[in-house]
Model the fold of this input.
Amino acid sequence: MTRRPVVCAALLVLPFSLFGQDSTAKANATPFHQGQWAAQFQAGAGFGSLGFIKFRSPTCALVLDLRLGGAHSEELTTDSSGANRFAHLNSNAFTQVRFGWRQYSGDGTAAKVVSHYSFGALAGFNHFASRDPTGSSQTNGWMAGAFADVGGTYLLTSRFGIGALATASLSYQNSLGKSSLSGRYRDWSIGGSAASASLVATLYF
Done:
């Protein structure tokens, strides 16, 4: 006797619950689909990157991002006889890989604007070398840490979108170096970067 009202109440609440879940799913729907791939090109003030996106669902994806950078410069001076002489050399290079999850949110399957946020792990290597007439030094190091970002994309077409991304990271760095003046040395540091903005172009397949 006492079970009947409970069962009736459950039957009344269930359709509203299912409707609420369906409405939420539709409200956050995106034009993407499970198994879809995308390539992401990022250009910022410091460096650019090339990333790959694998959608696990219309609103969730795996992100792999590769960042490369480096520079090399040499300086020559002219002595009193007019001959060029070596003055200074600087060389540096770094690579960084980021891997994580990205969550998307849109306003329907025909959405032109989608927002997203990501979080995950990062790892990288760096190299620096310097030389002048008084001596030389060289440092090689590695880093590991975590990152998070938030951004949005405007879909110009179903295959191409442009947007902006703000990223922050925290990492541990360890390096080993040698100098012609002071010999070998090792140092480490823990640091991070505040949110840095960059422009992003994404190509969907």
Notes: Residues 1-25 have pLDDT under 50 and may be disordered. The longest strand covers residues 84-105.
